[in-house]
Amino acid sequence: MPTLKLGSTDAITESSGALTYAQAGGLKSMQVITSTGSSTWTKPSGISTIKVYVTGAGGGGAGHGAGGDKGSGGSGGGTAIKILDVSNIDTCTCTIGTGGTTGSGSTTGGSGGTSSFAKTSGSGDFTTMSATGGSGGWHGNAGGSPRPGGIGSNGTLNLRGNTAGGGADDGGGNVPGGEGGGSFWGGGGCGSGYQNFNATAGEHGGGGGAGSSDGGNSGAVGANGIIVVEEYS
How many domains does the chain have? Predict the structure, then answer.
């Protein structure tokens, strides 16, 4: 009796009339890394292939500027996605970017930090994946123009983070600050609005919302980056 296969993995074999089942390869586990700075991904036993998502941090939302002005939000971090053969790789270094700082008054928001995934041990080799953070927002008195999102690099698929919502110089009353730009994982934060509704942060690489003189005057921080590793046998 011939051996039956699912893809390239033996599923059922026959020997002397006895059938033996071997589980086909597939997704076995997933690791989510969110702590800023550097940490180590260690390959679990039995894993030969991983799919990696690397996302940079979001930019911080700007302050409102002068009276009547609205800042622009921070833009989203970029994302790189790739499938990697780790048969001969043991560990990789994960670096998570920190979200951009808030702007207050006539202060721009800070840009988000870069995230990366790099081989540290084993005989295999691949080019380090990385994704830059989103730009911080401009305060309203500077025109409140939004700045670009981050971009992934060395992935099979490299994505740019969304551009944030813009602000305005002398924009009139009851107009909120610009919203933060989203990342691959979700949206950015809301800008501050009427009756002191404060700006909010984004999620997993999303940009922070901006300040408005009609609400909370300060922007919100950008969200930290994230790395997700799907692990396959």
Answer: 1
